[in-house]
TrEMBL record:
SUPFAM superfamilies: FAD/NAD(P)-binding domain (SSF51905). Its cofactor is FAD. Keywords: FAD, Flavoprotein, Oxidoreductase, Plasmid. This is Pyridine nucleotide-disulfide oxidoreductase. GO terms for biological process: aerobic electron transport chain. The keyword Plastid does not apply.
C-alpha cells in the first residue's frame, strides 16, 4: 500500500507545495505507486488573488491539471471541512455535497485566508475583491450602475480599509469607473480607515508616493474613524460622517482559514498556526503548515512572514520539500526568506517598489509600474506544465538564496 501526502488548498502555498514535494520524491527516485501526493481544492485552478483589483477578474485564474499531471500529483475536487490529526484523516465535501474521508501519512495544510468580516451592521451590502467570484460580482454591479442615470451616489465608491488592497483598489477605480460611466463622469473614490495614516503597514518611505498618487487621481481619504454601519446607499463612520455611495468595497484585512484551529491550539491573533522552524506543527508532528495559515519566522531577526503570495510561494516550496523529506526519513529544511520586497500598484500614476523590511525605495512611477506588471503577469504564475521546469520551480533553496 502506498504512503500518502495530502495537500489541502490550491493557493500559492499549495501549488508550490505540490511542486516541492514532487521534486523531493523525484530526486529520491520514489515512484508515485509508493508515495502518492494528492492536492485537494474546490477547483483545479490557482486564483491569482493579488490581481483581483484589476479589470476582467474572471480571467485571473491559472489552470492546474496539466501542471499536476506533469509532476505526478493527483487532484481531488472538493472542500475540506474537517481534519482529524489523531486519525490522520481529512473530511472532504464534493461539489455535489457528498462527503468522504481521505487518509494521510503526512499533511501539508495550505488552506489560506479569507477576508475578515466583522459584525458591522449591513456589511452584507458591501462588495469585495477577495476571490474571483467576489470581484466578478463587483464588476457586474458596476456594469448595472452604468445603465442608471448619473448621480453623486452612483458615481461614488467607498473603499473601507487603507492597507495594500484598499490602496490598489482605490487607485484603480477612477480609470475603471470612467470606462464604464463615461470619460466625463464626475467620479468620487473615498478610502476610509481607522488608522491616522494611509497604508499603516507600508512604512514611512512609500507613503508619500501613495499620497502623491491619491492626489493625482483624485482619491479622497477619511482616516482615524472606522465604518460602523453599511447600507445599500453608503456608509456611516464612527465620527458620525455619512458618505452616500452606491458601491461600498470592504478591504478590512485577512483572517487565516478556520482549518488552522483543527491542527493546533497555538494560534496568533490572525488565526495562524505557530509553526516550528521547518513549518511543522509541534502538537501534530505529521502535519506541516505553509502560506497564510502559518506564522513562520522568515529570518533570525524576529520577522514573520506576511499574508502575501511572496511569502506563500516560498513557504510552499519549503513545506512541500519538508513534508516529503520527513516521510522519507531525511532531514527537513529550516524555512528562511531573508529577501523582502513590496510593490504597490497605483494605477495610472504608476507603482512604488521597495526592498527590505525598512522599504528602501527602488522604483517609482512608470519604472515601478513595469516591475509590478512583471510580478503580476509572470512571477506569481505557476511554471509551464513541463516536468523538468516544474520540478525545478519547487526548489526552496533556489528562491532567495
Amino acid at each position: 500500500m502506498s504512503q500518502k501526502i495530502l495537500i489541502v488548498g490550491a493557493g500559492f502555498a499549495g501549488v508550490w507545495g505540490a511542486l516541492g514535494a514532487a521534486r523531493v520524491l523525484d530526486g529520491a527516485g520514489v515512484r508515485s505507486s509508493d508515495v502518492e501526493i494528492t492536492l485537494i481544492s474546490p477547483k483545479p485552478e490557482l486564483q491569482i488573488r493579488p490581481r483581483m483589483y484589476e479589470a476582467e477578474p474572471q480571467k485571473m485564474a491559472a489552470p492546474l491539471l496539466p501542471l499536476l499531471d506533469a509532476i505526478g500529483v493527483k487532484y481531488v475536487e472538493g472542500s475540506v471541512d474537517g481534519i482529524s490529526v489523531q486519525d490522520r484523516t481529512v473530511s472532504v465535501v464534493s461539489a455535489n455535497g457528498q462527503q468522504h474521508s481521505l487518509a494521510y501519512d503526512r499533511l501539508l495544510l495550505t488552506s489560506g485566508s479569507k477576508l475578515s468580516r466583522p459584525p458591522v451592521p449591513g456589511l452584507e451590502h458591501a462588495f469585495s475583491v477577495d476571490r474571483i467570484e467576489d470581484a466578478v460580482e463587483l464588476d457586474n454591479h458596476l456594469d448595472k450602475l452604468a445603465k442608471l442615470p448619473a448621480s453623486p451616489a452612483r458615481n461614488t465608491v467607498a473603499v473601507v480599509g487603507c492597507g495594500f488592497t484598499g490602496i490598489e483598489v482605490a487607485t484603480e477605480l477612477p480609470k475603471r469607473l470612467r470606462e464604464k460611466f463615461g470619460a466625463d463622469a464626475a467620479i468620487r473614490v473615498v478610502v476610509i480607515g481607522t488608522q491616522e495614516e494611509i497604508g499603516p503597514d507600508l512604512g514611512a518611505n512609500p507613503r508619500p508616493f501613495v499620497a502623491e498618487a491619491f492626489a493625482s487621481l483624485g482619491v479622497e481619504t477619511v482616516l482615524g474613524s472606522g465604518v460602523v454601519a453599511v447600507d445599500a446607499d453608503g456608509v456611516r463612520t464612527a465620527s458620525g460622517q455619512r458618505i452616500e455611495a452606491s458601491t461600498v468595497i470592504w478591504a478590512g484585512g485577512m483572517r487565516a482559514s478556520p482549518l488552522a484551529a483543527q491542527v493546533s491550539s497555538n494560534l496568533d491573533p490572525l488565526g495562524r498556526v505557530e509553526v516550528a522552524p521547518d513549518l511543522r506543527v509541534p502538537e501534530a508532528p505529521h502535519v506541516f503548515v505553509a502560506g497564510d495559515v502559518a506564522k513562520a519566522l522568515t529570518d533570525d531577526n524576529g520577522r514573520y512572514a506576511l499574508m502575501s503570495c511572496q511569502h506563500a510561494i516560498v513557504m510552499g516550496q519549503f513545506g512541500g520539500h519538508n513534508v516529503a523529506a520527513d516521510l522519507l526519513g531525511v532531514p527537513t529544511l529550516t524555512y528562511r526568506q531573508p529577501f523582502y520586497a513590496t510593490c504597490v500598484d497605483l494605477s495610472e500614476w504608476g507603482a512604488v517598489y521597495s526592498e527590505g523590511w525598512d522599504r528602501q525605495i527602488k522604483l517609482t512611477h512608470a519604472e515601478g509600474k513595469a516591475r509590478k506588471q512583471m510580478i503580476n503577469t509572470q512571477w506569481i504564475y505557476p511554471p509551464a506544465p513541463n516536468r523538468a521546469e516544474a520540478l525545478a520551480a519547487g526548489n526552496p533553496q533556489a528562491s532567495f538564496g
